[in-house]
Write a structure and sequence with these properties.
It is a single chain. This protein is elongated. 14% of the residues are buried. The chain is an alpha+beta fold. The N and C termini lie far apart (140 Å).
Amino acid sequence: MGERGVGVLMAGEPVWPDWGEFITQDREHINQLRGMSQPQQPTQPQPTRMGESDMEIAETELREMARTPWHDLAAGQQRVVLAHLCGTGKSTARTGLRDALNMNPTRTAMELWEIQQAAGATVAPTMPVRWEPGMLVEKLPEDLHHARVVISDAQKTARAAHEHPGLWVVYGVSDGEHARRIALEKVRRVVRAKTSAFAPAASFEAQAREVEPGRYVVFCRYVGAEQ
């Protein structure tokens, strides 16, 4: 039996067309016959941003998803929320927020994001200034250098003696073969203020005592500066 067509007679009998196949193959022609001036155009998908779904998402929908528990969001919605809160692309804030949500899936992205904000986790590091000779500056930068403050034994002793005038305060302990000579030298430096902590001269008294064989302790006390 030969091919069938519209208005073609086969063996003296009219053969009616297969309308389903005809409509499928000639949809544009059918639309024109129905009075449509232009064939129906397929709906073009909206351009999407990286990490978003194919459908355009309104701001209200983004806020709603950001306040939805993390485990209730699909993977695509999770990516959209992260992009909404932290921007597209990799970043420390985005990675930290995603990891925190994966460990706390019952929390919402907005909750943990606000915690990050409060903790300053999203503060981007500032680029170092390139200092050039002749460059003008409006304000001097903060000096990060802090001089190391070392309080000597003499300063500790003098301070305690000043706070408790008239009472003896331990200054130092000497041991060994030359312990006595070292202790007596300390006494001399206290009385004559050869060490600045005990200035002015004669404002402190000092004594060296052998408290154990070969061990000497130097004591001093504040008696006040001479008038």
